[in-house]
Amino acid sequence: MNPRRRDRIGLFSAEMLTMVVTFLLGLWGLLTIASSQSAAPQPLLLAGRQLGALAGGMLVMYVAGRIPFGFYRGQIPVLAGLFFLLLLLLPLFGVRINGMCGWFRFGEFHLQPSEPAKGIYLLSLCVLISQMRSDNLKFAAGMILAALWVLPIVLQPDFGTAAIYFAGFAAVYFLAGGRWRNLLMLFGAGAVSVSIFLCTHSYALKRITGLFDPESDPLGSGWHIRQFELAIARGHYFGGKLGNAVWSNAYLPLPYNDSAYATMSETLGFFGTLPLWIGFAVLIGLLFRMSYRMDLENDARLYLGGTAALLAVQTLVHVSVNLCLLPPTGLTLPLISFGGSSLIGCCLMLGIAISAGRSSPAE
Which residues of 215-242 are buried (b: 16+ CB within 10 A; e: fewer)? Predict the structure, then answer.
């Protein structure tokens, strides 16, 4: 078989499998959400909304994947400007939920613009960094662009999402051949910023102390940690089965969102969480597989690798929080946690990645 034809067949298979795995992970998330609400007055309300978001997300993913990557590259100033404007408008027109002004409200529905903006933000980084010739220019230009995007997110304040945005920059810069020295400087600056934040915000420091000693304040800073531990311990190997996630329904904070992995663990047990790990491993592997094409432009290759890294980092942070390895944050589990903004945003990012994987130098 002609090598070029074989590559096209392999690329088509990777694209289709990416969509299938995304859909299956979304369905696994529906089980988690339904289980977390089994004792609610309307147990299928959130799962029904998430099913609608999943259908919409798959459509967005398919359409975004069919649009030529050259269009995204050429229109990135307009796309980035539109999504960045949404972030800037939040202080004027946004609504505050759990102390964070990060959503627009449209009747019964809420839009969190920082979620669908992730793919566009990542694309803007990839296009900019791929145009820089020297390593120092790549780092400086990428750092300035990342800081501009992160500033309105920090002001919400949403420090978990801000950290993911900075992780996206670090991943793209590293994949572009960035120097370890600059990355170490970035991590050092991040550590200093976190230290200053902890010293000036007592509630954040209490989350750290609650992580290491939850019994010192079991009804305050240690509450989340204890509920994570008890929910996961109750799931054991095979879980309490659907409709029997007692701890998730009664005590676990936001079991359908921030605590989605703990809810899944209680419901399905250790073995029931394995499809999640397998699904994300396959998805991330497929994205890197598509980036190996020799004739890909540099920005397309960076976008595929950056998407894989962003999904991996956010997944690991969410799971680490639920496993009590990191202090509590408000990060969702991609494709699993309840929220149309997060789900459709992930699908948009993956759709652009599919477009990047099928792009050609002529675009």
Answer: eeeeeebbbbbbbbbbbbebbeeebbee
**284 vs 280: CA distance, rounded Å:** 6
pTM of the model: 0.92
Give the chain's radius of gyration (CA, Å).
21
Tokens of 330: 């408000």
Residue with tokens 């019964």: 108
Which of 280, 254, 256 is CA-nearest to residue 267?
Answer: 256
Q: What is the pLDDT of residue 1?
A: 47
Q: Would you call 314 exposed, middle or buried from its count of C-beta atoms within 10 A (0-12, 13-18, 19+)?
A: buried
- What is the pLDDT confidence band of residue 189, given thresholds at 50, 70 and 90? confident
Cα separations in angstroms, 7 against 12, 140, 352? 9, 36, 19
Cα atoms found within 13 Å of the Cα of residue 105, Cβ hemisphere only: 10
Token digits for 85?
């404007």
